[in-house]
Amino acid sequence: MTQEDVVLPAPREAEGRSEAEAGEREPLLVVEGLTKHFPVKGGFPIRRTVGQVQAVDGIDLTVAVGESFGLVGESGCGKSTTGRLITRLLEPTGGKVSYRGQDISHASRRELAPIRSEIQMIFQDPYSSLNPRQTVGKIISGPMEINGIEPEGGREKRVRELLEIVGLNPEHFNRFPHEFSGGQRQRIGVARALALEPKLIVADEPVSALDVSIQAQVVNLLQQVQRELDIAFLFIAHDLAVVRHFSQRVAVMYLGKIIEVGDRTSIYTRPRHPYTHALLSAVPEVAVGEDSAPQRERIRLAGDVPSPISPPSGCRFRTRCWKAAEKCAAEEPPLVRISGNHEGHLTACHFPEEPTTEARDEDIVLDPALAALEDGGEG
Amino acid sequence: MLRFLLRRTLGSIVILVLLTVVAFLLFFGMPRDPALLMCGKTCTPDALENIHRTLGIDKSIPEQFWIFLQGLVMGRDDFAQGPCPAPCFGYSYHTNEQVWSTLMDRLPLTVSLALGATVVFLFVGLGTGMLAAWRRGTLVDKSFTAGSMVLSSMQIYFLGPLALAVLVYQTHLFDEPRYTELTADPVAWFTGLIIPWVVLSTIFAAQYTRMARSSMIEQLQEEHIRTARAKGMSRRYVFFRYAWRGSLIPIVTILGIDLSSMLGGAIITEYTFGLPGLGHLAVESVQFSDLPLLLGVMLFAAAVILLCNIVVDAAYAFIDPRVRLS
Amino acid sequence: MTTVTKEAGAPVPAGAGAFLSVRDLHVSFRTEDGVVGAVDGLSFDLERGKTLGIVGESGSGKSVTNLTVLGLHNPMFTTVEGEILLEGQELTTARESELERIRGNKVAMIFQDPLTALSPYYTVGRQIAEPYMKHRGASRKAAWERTVEMLGKVGIPHPRERAKDYPHQFSGGMRQRAMIAMALVCDPDLLIADEPTTALDVTVQAQILDLLKDLQQDTGSAIIFITHDLGVIADMADDIMVMYAGNAVERGTVDEVLRSPRHPYTWGLLNSMPRLDSDPATPLAPIPGAPPSLLNPPSGCRFHPRCTFQDRVGGGRCVDERPLLAPDRASACHLTADQKRTIFVEEIKPRLG
Q: Could you tell me which residue ranges the ABC transmembrane type-1 domain spans (chain B) (predicted)?
């Protein structure tokens, strides 16, 4: 059964909300100056904290009711940590996470309990996030049990309903996770997240462990759930195309900071931060059915992301940036709307790029090996 | 890495001191009076007092402990039996011998037994285990695996007397187990210990066969093994250079545990073959409520275990650069 | 060769000019649950200096095929039938010592995860030098010089010092560069890259892909590039082979396959992938269902249980009869050539716009 066949119970809102409209709705989640540092132990003879992994270092973001907000970045940029801080699986070192106006950044278990049911999480690995010894019914009704919720018609009826919503056979509630394929298991994860009728779902790389054809099934399911149940999403992923497809607004993270944020059209067609340019230009694209692919800029950075233990001073991207100047090392660029940006499009850069992704006169190749090989080939 | 080992050593010393405190309090803080035992049937309060004084247990417990610690570090001469150089655990209640020299008397036997057996079981166990892994799924593998299952379920008190009966008393193929100093007569040392070695190592070897086999097989499934094969290295090379190195980690871990427990005294083996080593000594000290001796044996065994742990950690670092460089 | 006239036919004899030629390859594993037919009648050719991209999802047989080329399958549980000809030399029946001479020398491989694919116990330099010493008989010193040269070439800064480091001291991208250096140290004629960038970040992936292309320009070796990502293939390959459930279902040059794909599975893949320029309002059109178990593969066309076009073939042919893949530009599907063209132009392409 595919999700196309599924009839959802009473959709609260018709689909097709415009991007601008989404931005104007009341904020559900407000994150201000969120910071998480993990201590690094070392030293002699007594082990002590000798440094901090600055996993997340002062980020601000707002997710509106029913909005899908995307968080992209490469490994080590702090996007997953951000997700865990918002769901309070981790406690922030600093800053504030407010849900519906209530500060939950340091809330106790008891204070969190009512909110926990409204903020749910979907994880990357559908294999390890489901208890193999529990039936699917038990897994999905777990959150209801913990929170002492007795839905109308009983939990089993609700479980069947949820299985149907996520496109699984409701008769399978007595089966175990290993009897399902990877994509089906991720559907079980979605059903579990939906069990308490959440208002916000934090989805951390929900499709990256799945095969391409299955990925699309799960993306569609999440999109349908998001629209029809009016659930806000914080969609965390490294795949830029998937994030673009799913999110109305997108934030790009680099080394614990948000370096650019805006609505999806702005970020993907009018990026200003050099790192966003580099990211987009690195995505390999298929031009299907076209005679020639549209010419995009080619930017090849050198090396990998530096360690978040001792991030570069000033602008954190400057060590890999072709525009870096003295100012970049001395001064951290604020995340602001720079001239030429649409409303709501903020960029943290002293020397922003032109708002286009079209091919440049000359490729930017910072990788020394590539530069050497390419020069040698020409000359 | 050196820092890490130093830290482990310091930590071990702290543990040892704590252990000394606990053990001392347990033994000497007990309501039971060891003097009563020594005083015999014709005991008078005066005689008892006298014994208390000679044993040094007329003082308060903290005072006694302080004296004990001082003795460990600097030695003591307040014993009636004579001076007691550091490390001084005092004199045995039972034999009136210095505890430390008793320990040192018994140690060579225990070390000989443990190291000899280790050499044998490592050689046999790892050899058969690796051969089984090399020929995985063949008859060789299956018979080694089955054999090791049977042997590892054996017990020393079964195999030991059996070996004695068959190999020594019936066929006279081997000498009766007996300990001779290695320096005195190497041949007698060897022939006297060969049966205990074989029996002890049979049981351990079986365990190492299984462990070596399974950890080799696990290593051979690692991706870097496939890479090494893909660049044209031969199966033999990959087996001995790449897989072997990784399979050593679990083996060293278990070896550390086994070796430390054997060096602390292989009680059953020593009793089975009538060899008076440290294990024997431990049992004797319990039998005679010989508190100084018991404390000495216990702390010595603990020190051996901690030392083995440090050696194992150092071995990890030697085997795996990821440990060394982190 | 853009139009295909012969849609059916038995495997043709090995291509004369081909450097690597695989004919009717069958690979099956014995498992506890039964026999898994991982590759089922695969044929392809590869010319010198060309790049063949093999696309497929997990279980499509794309990795198995290439392990079999190098004889790296476990012979105890695996049955291999068919021909693998490398410069005319039959590899399926070659002796182990013969294969060892080829591996890392004439044919080299790089793998997906460079952290697990490099041994943690030896320095990067030693692992690169090993095959050079073995295949070229080079001295330790000469091999070390060559290692440093290769590390420099793939863009590792301070190669002489870094060669003495262990893999865990390298970053992910640097490790994959070291893997490439190791694979290319003996100037192989064929490089098999099995998902070499899947574990990497996108900016690093772009560096590595370009590096592979540039190095190929430099050395002229052929590449078999295995991936699940059509975007990567479009960027890297000259020819594409799409695999599904142990079969090749479509083949052609990159231009041919991406400009006018002809197999419903290829269409499904394209429809499943969001792109940077697709309309976000159009929902993705996933392939329904999940890939089949190869313990018990579907009859006829292995894709038929997930195919939405089988009613247009009629006569139950999709269920009963296995569609064959003709050589050159072809797709293994019972739809007629006209149907394939019309369906793509009228139903698939508009969605992608």
A: 107-316
Nearest to B267 by CA among B210, B200, B320: B200
Q: What ipTM is given for this predicted complex?
A: 0.88
Asked whether residue A222 falls in the same domain as residue A326, the answer is no
Amino acid at A177: P
Note whether A77 and A108 are same-domain residues. Answer: yes
Q: Which residues of C touch A293 (CB under 8 A)?
A: 234
CA distance B23 to B29: 9
Give residues 241 to 300 of C whose Cβ lies within 8 Å of B.
Answer: none
DSSP assignment, residue B239?
I
Q: What confidence score (pLDDT) does residue C144 get?
A: 97
- Write the single-letter amino acid at A344: G
| Rounded-to-integer distance, Cα B83 and Cα B172, Å | 47
- Residue in this structure with the two tokens 């051969």, named with its chain if needed: B131
Distance CA(B235)–CA(A36), nearest Å, equals: 48
CA of A307 to nearest chain B CA: how many angstroms apart? 15
Q: From the list A181, A211, A286, which residue is nearest C230 (CB)?
A: A286
Is A44 an interface residue toward B (CB < 8 Å)? yes
Chain A residue numbers with beta carbons less than 8 Å from the beta carbon of C206 are 281-282, 284, 300
Confidence of residue C353 (pLDDT cuts 50, 70, 90): low
Give A45's contacts in chain B (Cβ within 8 Å).
Answer: 3, 6-7, 10
Identify whether residues A176 and A310 lie together within a single domain.
Answer: no
- Minimum mean pLDDT among A39-53, A186-200, C70-84: which range? A39-53
Tokens of residue B2, six digits:
């050196």
A88 and A211 together in one domain: yes
Task: Write out residues 129-168 of C within 8 Å (CB-CB) of B.
Answer: 130-131, 134-135, 166, 168
Say if CB C167 and CB C218 are below 8 A apart.
no
Q: Do B232 and C135 touch (CB under 8 A)?
A: yes
A369 shares a domain with A237: no
Do both A237 and A277 map to the same domain?
A: no
DSSP per residue, C265-283: HHHHHHHH---TTS-TTSP
Give the pLDDT confidence of C274-311 residue by residue, as tens digits: 988 888 888 899 999 888 888 889 999 999 999 999 88
Q: What is the rounded CA–CA span in Å between residue C52 and residue A255?
A: 37
Helix (H, G, I), strand (E, B) or coil at B294: helix
Residue B197 CB burial class (10 angstroms; 0-12, 13-18, ≥19): buried
Residue A267 lies in a domain: no
Q: Which residues of B60-96 are buried (b: 16+ CB within 10 A; e: fewer)?
A: eeeebbebbeebbeeebeebeeeebeebbbbbbbbee
Q: Residue A12 falls within a domain, yes or no?
A: no
Could you tell me if A233 and A277 lie in one domain? no
Give the mutation candidate from A245, A259, A288 for the C interface (greatest C CB count, under 10 A).
A288
Contacts of A307 (CB under 8 A, 6+ apart): none
Q: Is residue A11 part of a domain?
A: no
User: B232 and C104 in contact by Cβ < 8 A?
Assistant: yes
| Residues B143, B139: Cα–Cα separation, whole Å | 6
State the DSSP H helix or E strand holding residue A64, giving kind and residue range, or none if neither: strand A48-64
For the segment B213-229, the average pLDDT, to the nearest whole number, is 93
Average pLDDT over residues C28-43: 91
Distance from CA of B92 to the nearest CA of A (A): 38
Q: Do C167 and C122 touch, CB atoms closer than 8 A?
A: no
